[in-house]
Amino acid sequence: MTTSLVTLGIHPVAAAYGGSSNFNASSASTQAILPYELYLPLVEH
Amino acid sequence: MDFAVPANSSLTAPILVSQASYTLAASFVPEPAPGNNSDTLADRLMNLNQYRRISNTESLWVQHTVGTVFASTPTGIQWAQIDVTGGTVNTIPLQQQIFNNGSDGLNRFVGSLAVDKSGNAALGYSVSSASVAPDIRYVGRLASDPLGQMPRSEATLLGGQTRSVQTGTCGGSACTRWGDYSAMTVDPADDCTFWYTNMYFPVQGANWVTRIGSFKFPSCANASTTSLVSSPNPSVFGQTLTLTATVGSSVNGAGTPSGVVSFTIGAMSPLTSSLANGIATLITSTLPVGTYPITATYSGDSSFNGSQVVLAVNQTVNKASTATALALSPLPPIGSPTLTITATVTALAPALDAHRGPHIHY
After folding, report:
1. How far apart are CA B236 and CA B57, in angstroms?
2. CB–CB of A26/A20 below 8 Å?
3. How far apart are CA B109 and CA B41, in angstroms?
4. ipTM confidence
5. Where are the domains of chain B?
6. Which of A39-43, B45-49, B77-81, B313-317 has the lowest mean pLDDT?
7. CA distance A2 to chain B (A)
8. Among B82, B311, B343, B351, which is disulfide-ready with A15 (CB 3.0 to 4.6 Å)?
């Protein structure tokens, strides 16, 4: 687990799936518009 | 022979073919008393000359009733296979034998012989002696048997039937004709099944009856053909893949093969599927990405030999395409430590939806 500080403003968000032995990779992106700062824990499961 | 222009046809002089020495058969053989003697008709060939072409080898099969080498009884059947090369009859038989079942003392007479499409031969005849009421029996040889032998054990066509003898007079003298019109033939439907027709007496008297029986050698079966199609090829992981094996025969009227087809995909264990109207299918969606040779093996049934085919082009299973989607949760209140970002990875058609990539949350 890690944390990070995200400042207010417009933030690009991207996700990339690296693929596997049976699946090709793919990715997506969007924007997060934050009116204030956030401390975000990062959890992957 | 020119059937279109008969005038172009010609007949050449008879060709003399050698045969093993024998003693003329007795003209008559006994039945148990009070039965009349039976005419062996040993002075002529009583069965049609049988022509067969097996794997481009043409042969004539003939037989007649003879004695042994040195005696006129017990009578037996001398049969021969005479090959024909380039339209010329060979003067020495490929094989021949005087069959009297090891000279067991019974008389065998008025035979008939036929050959199936595999080159297996069946020889039928009447059997009698002074103590054995006339019987209908047959014997055979496989094409692979040693030449000059009928090693397939003699069998009767009258198992369980009461047999008696012929009595009475015909035209003022004892009736002696027996089995003149008996015949061994091969069923044209499968070119394997022998049909044997002969006469016998279920009760003493002058009223003979006809017995018709059939049999075949298990090794005689129609060739089958197997074809194999995979669809789609290439496919992608998770996509439904259908393997279709079609089993048929090039022999008209031979029927439709039944049984099972075994599919072998790469190094995997074979999977079987039953034929329905000559078609077996195997459906799978679990093949990992890779390239697979595929073999379909038909194991045959009572009428058809097995056959096998390898897929002409190896089956290729490619990776499935995926799509990644991002979703942001509603903004948390000020001071909240979490913002949820969800990435969803999904396999795209034609891969089955059941195969999904990982879901990642931030």
Report:
1. 51
2. no
3. 8
4. 0.77
5. 6-215, 225-318, 322-361
6. A39-43
7. 11
8. B343
Residue carrying structure tokens 């692979």: B144
> pTM for the whole thing?
0.64
Distance of CA B50 to the CA centre of its chain: 19
> Six-digit token pair at B63?
């037989």
Sole residue written with tokens 């087809």: B261
Label residue B17 exposed, middle or buried (CB < 10 Å: 0-12, 13-18, 19+).
middle
Residues of A in contact with B326 (CB under 8 A): 13-15, 28-30
CA distance A23 to chain B (A): 5
Amino acid at residue number B45: L
Which is nearest to B179 in space by CA: B314, B274, B77, B309? B77
What letter would DSSP give residue B329? P
Distance from CA of A12 to the nearest CA of B (A): 11
The answer to whether B238 contacts A22, with C-beta atoms less than 8 Å apart, is: yes
User: Which of B320, B324, B362 faces A42 most closely, judged by CB atoms?
Assistant: B362
Alpha helices, DSSP H, located in chain B: none
Task: Return the DSSP state at B16.
Answer: P
CB contact under 8 A, A40 and B339: yes
Q: Which residue from B189, B127, B131, B123 is spatially nearest to B152, judged by alpha carbons?
A: B123
How many CB atoms neighbour CB B133 within 10 A?
19
Nearest residue on chain B to A11, judged by CA atoms?
B328
Least Cα separation, residue B325 to chain A (angstroms): 6
Lowest pLDDT segment from A1-5, A18-22, B326-330: A1-5
Q: Does B355 touch chain A (CB under 8 A)?
A: yes
- Flag if B339 and A6 touch (Cβ within 8 Å): yes
Q: Residue B338's closest chain A neighbor by CA?
A: A40
In whole angstroms, give the CA distance from residue B100 to residue B106.
Answer: 8
Architecture of domain B225-318: Sandwich (2.60)
The number of residues making up chain B comes to 362
CA atoms within 13 A on the CB side of B73: 13
User: Which amino acid type is present at position A4?
Assistant: S
A25 Cβ under 8 Å from any chain B Cβ: yes
